[in-house]
């Protein structure tokens, strides 16, 4: 499929579903049930997973238990407000192992060439295309996320326990509520959007600065893969700032933070209650996150630049299915991002 041209490309900047839960989990433990309930009421609910991509439901009243897999995409829009031309430029599989003591963020390249399955209910006949086209082929919103989830299930062989769509605009406000986050720039970048210059070194960035920085992929030696790493670094920085700023100990500030995060999310938690997920993950901290890149090689289809998964990717998919990402990353450190 020829990539649509002439449309304004919306920015998709994302926090992972589990990562956001980690921030709120630490908050929930100190805030009590009232604030956790207020957070749950702030998020938008939607059916984001295709039936074939949804994990089997646990037994009634069963405690939250790993392993868990969540699909996370970024969007400028709420999942229940689709618009033409949407693409999921950031796609992450967030994996929580059986031990529930770690969070692995597996970034899926937006230009990965895949087979997008047909879906008669969406009047889509299937196509070989870049994976970020699946969100648009499904009509955006919840339908787009469902088609993307089916595409990933066919590709990786896992089913998902939940999904989240994150509106980036709300996250910039969240950063400002925390007084900014500390980001370390690894190479000089000149923004193609604002012409701001990001020099190497560490500094505190406010919401608009962070958003501008995370949008950049041109000028990076590894392009979109470098941007993926910056997004993973941002997640860790946001979590660290939430824990160190004193916000979690201040009920008024904490409520504002929870409401800001909640308004940025559209969620599908499957059979689990959101508050149960929050408290099950409350022990995770910034040092418990690992960023992983999909093993790839660059390719082209016609006039389109694409990415192809290599044979090493099969091992990563298998590690996700068997809950052995720790073993895979120890054997393939070159695909682990330092965040």
Layout: helices, strands, pairs:
Blueprint: H1 17-31, H2 33-42, E1 44-45, E2 68-75, E3 91-96, E4 103-108, E5 113-116, E6 127-130, H3 133-137, H4 141-156, E7 162-167, H5 168-177, E8 181-185, E9 189-190, E10 197-198, E11 201-205, H6 207-215, H7 224-244, H8 251-263, E12 265-268, H9 274-280, E13 289-293, E14 296-301, E15 304-309, H10 311-322, H11 325-331, E16 336-337
Parallel strand pairs: 1-12, 2-7, 4-13
Antiparallel strand pairs: 2-3, 3-4, 5-6, 7-12, 8-11, 9-10, 13-16, 14-15
Helix pairs in contact: 1-2, 1-7, 1-8, 1-9, 2-8, 5-6, 5-8, 6-7, 10-11
Characterize the structure shown.
An 8-stranded mixed beta sheet has the order 1-12-7-2-3-4-13-16. Strands 5-6 form a two-stranded antiparallel sheet. Strands 8-11 form a two-stranded antiparallel sheet. It contains 11 helices and 16 strands. The chain has helices spanning 17-31, 33-42, 133-137, 141-156, 168-177, 207-215, 224-244, 251-263, 274-280, 311-322, 325-331, and strands spanning 44-45, 68-75, 91-96, 103-108, 113-116, 127-130, 162-167, 181-185, 189-190, 197-198, 201-205, 265-268, 289-293, 296-301, 304-309, 336-337. It is of the alpha+beta class and 339 residues long. The protein is globular, with a radius of gyration of 19 Å. The longest helix has 21 residues, at 224-244.
């Amino acid at each position: 499929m020829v990539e649509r041209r002439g449309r304004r490309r919306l920015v998709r900047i994302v926090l992972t579903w589990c990562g956001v839960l980690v921030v709120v989990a630490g908050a929930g433990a100190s805030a009590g049930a009232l604030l956790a309930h207020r957070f749950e009421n702030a998020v938008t609910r939607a059916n984001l997973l295709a039936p074939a991509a949804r994990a089997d439901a646990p037994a009634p009243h069963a405690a939250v238990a790993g392993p868990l897999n969540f699909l996370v995409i970024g969007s400028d829009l709420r999942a229940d407000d689709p618009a033409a031309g949407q693409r999921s430029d950031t796609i992450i599989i967030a994996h929580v192992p059986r031990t529930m003591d770690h969070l692995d963020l597996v970034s899926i390249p937006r230009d990965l060439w895949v087979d997008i399955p047909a879906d008669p209910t969406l009047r889509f006949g299937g196509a070989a295309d870049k994976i970020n086209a699946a969100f648009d082929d499904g009509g955006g919103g919840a339908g787009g996320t469902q088609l993307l989830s089916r595409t990933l299930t066919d590709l990786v062989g896992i089913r998902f326990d939940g999904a989240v769509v994150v509106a980036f605009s709300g996250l910039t406000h969240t950063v400002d509520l925390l007084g900014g986050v500390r980001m370390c720039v690894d190479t000089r970048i000149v923004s193609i959007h604002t012409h701001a210059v990001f020099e190497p070194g560490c500094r505190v960035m406010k919401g608009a600065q962070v958003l501008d920085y995370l949008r950049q992929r041109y000028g990076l030696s590894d392009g979109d893969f470098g941007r993926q790493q910056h997004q993973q670094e941002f997640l860790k920085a946001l979590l660290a700032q939430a824990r160190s700023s004193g916000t979690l100990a201040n009920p008024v500030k904490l409520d504002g933070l929870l409401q800001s995060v909640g308004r940025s999310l559209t969620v599908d938690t499957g059979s689990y209650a959101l508050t149960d997920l929050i408290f099950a993950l409350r022990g995770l901290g910034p040092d418990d996150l690992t960023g992983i890149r999909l093993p790839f090689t660059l390719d082209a289809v016609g006039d389109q630049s694409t990415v192809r998964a290599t044979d090493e990717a099969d091992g990563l998919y298998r590690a996700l299915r068997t809950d052995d990402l720790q073993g895979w990353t120890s054997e393939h450190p070159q695909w682990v991002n330092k965040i």
